[in-house]
Design goal:
This protein is an all-alpha fold and about 200 residues long. The chain is built from eight helices and no strands. About 70% of the residues lie in helices and about 0% in strands.
Length: about 200
């Protein structure tokens, strides 16, 4: 029997050890997902914990297919929706711009979902640049590009029109392109000067 299937079954049966193992196994994934929307570490951990309560309360509704080889991928997609919706609900409640801080380094430690050090560095750099965007652009960019939501879904989640979502995405991409080209120009210029 697949280990993930056993873990999920244990959580559905309210087995404390299974729930603790599940939480520990997916905590890093959950925090990185939430941190794309909530930049205060303490608030992000609160959102993660609230999300895990929702996950455990609704895990019996998750379509657990013992035969599927992609159970964990499907589970993580399902969890990501809960994590993002919980983060978006928090943003709606507190319409203020979030305080930006860094995630502790241990959260970025190598995980099964990142295939190497280069990907980990690129992911960290992308998130740092995305955090510099205005909140509305940042949220739409994260939902569309990183988390794979459609403009229709984003419009429903954020209470905006599809056109507003598309416009915010275009402006976010333009700003990111500018940030990144300036950054790489500085790096290349510095390398040229040193030669």
């Amino acid at each position: 029997m697949d280990a993930i299937y056993i873990l999920i079954r244990g959580c559905i049966d309210n087995n404390n050890k299974s729930q603790r193992d599940f939480y520990n196994h997916y905590y890093g994934f959950a925090l990185k997902t939430v941190f794309r929307y909530i930049f205060q570490y303490d608030k992000a951990t609160d959102i993660v914990n609230d999300s895990f309560v929702k996950i455990f309360n609704n895990l019996a509704k998750f379509n657990l297919n013992k035969e599927s080889a992609d159970t964990e991928k499907i589970l993580m997609g399902w969890m990501k929706r809960i994590l993002i919706n919980t983060a978006i609900d928090e943003l709606r409640r507190n319409q203020t711009a979030p305080n930006i801080c860094e995630l502790p380094e241990y959260i970025w430690e190598e995980s099964d979902r990142l295939n190497g050090a280069d990907q980990k560095i690129l992911y960290k750099e992308l998130i740092c640049e995305v955090k510099r965007l205005p909140p509305s652009y940042r949220t739409v960019f994260s939902l569309f590009v990183i988390d794979g939501f459609s403009h229709n879904e984003i419009a429903g989640l954020l209470g905006i029109s599809e056109g507003t979502s598309k416009s915010a995405l275009a402006k976010a991409k333009a700003q990111l392109k500018k940030f990144l080209s300036n950054r790489f120009s500085e790096k290349n210029y510095g390398a040229t000067v040193r030669q």
